[in-house]
From TrEMBL:
This is F-box associated beta-propeller type 3 domain-containing protein. Residues 49-245 form the F-box associated beta-propeller type domain. InterPro entries: F-box-assoc_dom_typ3, F-box-assoc_interact_dom, SCF_F-box_component. It holds the Pfam family FBA_3. Transmembrane segments: none annotated.
Amino acid sequence: MDHRAEPELLFYAPVPGHTTAFYACSVRDGEAPAAARELLTADNLSAEHVVLSPTPPCHGLTLIFEARAAEYHVCNLSTGDHVTLPPCEPAAEVDSPLQFLDGARFHNIMTPWFPFERSSAGLAFDAATGEHKVVRLFKKPSGEASCEVYTLGGAEADGWRPCAGQVMPHVGSFLVGMPPVSLDGFLYWLRSPYVGYAEVLEEKPILSFNVSTEQFGWVHMPPELARRTSHLANLDGSLCAVVDNRCFFELYELYTWSGAASTSPSWSPRCSINLQSLPEQVSDELLEERDVIPLCSGAGGGGKGKILLATGRHKVFAYDGERGTVERVFRMQDFVDFPEDHIQARLLLNVGLHEERVGDAVHLGGEGRLQVKLGRRGNTVVKREASVEHHDGSNRCTLDMFKRLAASRRANATHKYPKL
């Protein structure tokens, strides 16, 4: 994505059925958009079970995973050009909450739907060969971890093939459906803190995959940062670690990695948001969110401009580091309708970034099985100023509980926020 351009948000409404409509809207200087344009509508694609990767797109291409159908499509959302990948090897499925052992305690992680496939796939560009590759890391029904690769534009007979490198044992245990971060020819997965192997996790919490050599590796982190990181993201071309302590200390922090190519790879703070310093309405909105993920900064990139933060409740906030302010700039329900019981994304986010690629679009060979209808030029959806806010009835009690907990911890000297 060109960081000099104004960012465009990509979103799709989580409506029941077998049709998914994709929209895009510009966020100029971190200001709220007045309208959105329809990119395309795809039939035979359930919006409730769609997973997109990466964000931003890879040379205009987006990997679309239809989870319940176990189908992968690579699509240019600007042109509608797409290819449906051949069937892949079956992965292990779970039909009850995932259980992870941490010491003597079991932790349950609810999956967004049942049955749920233990796999994760990402799209990346191999600069050495000029090819795009889809990489799928998964746990076999036998319990063995495996990795397969599909090369776009390759011979049709090639299909999926095992990756060239050796798959590390136990990596299949932390696959909970989240796609990896795609960045500069690498894919990155954050290991779950509940998998065990604490001595490895503390030093090497991030699994990496070199798309060119097809070899796995680890990204080191300071132990304290490793314990506190909840998500990874691509923030303006840098691998970003999200340290989300909104519930316990009313703090939200981002750290970026200098990269494997640097002489001494290291992590440095990008921003720190103190929710106590924000207006109560904004602070409450951020506290009630389950997931808050950075998308990009405004025009200029490289640490300049407001940082856009997407949430699981289909909103985007803009953080202004110079003024220390946060304001909501996007709310999906202002543009499209969706059921109230779908106010929370089933798997992380329904909002990402769009990259317009038409004239220099990558040609996709192969057959596409989606029924795609492009949005008409000039067909926009105007923001509805009077839309009603959807709220979960239990949010107020939960919010008050988090506030009391944070206040108690701040007052207790033994629970001071640990600095990195």
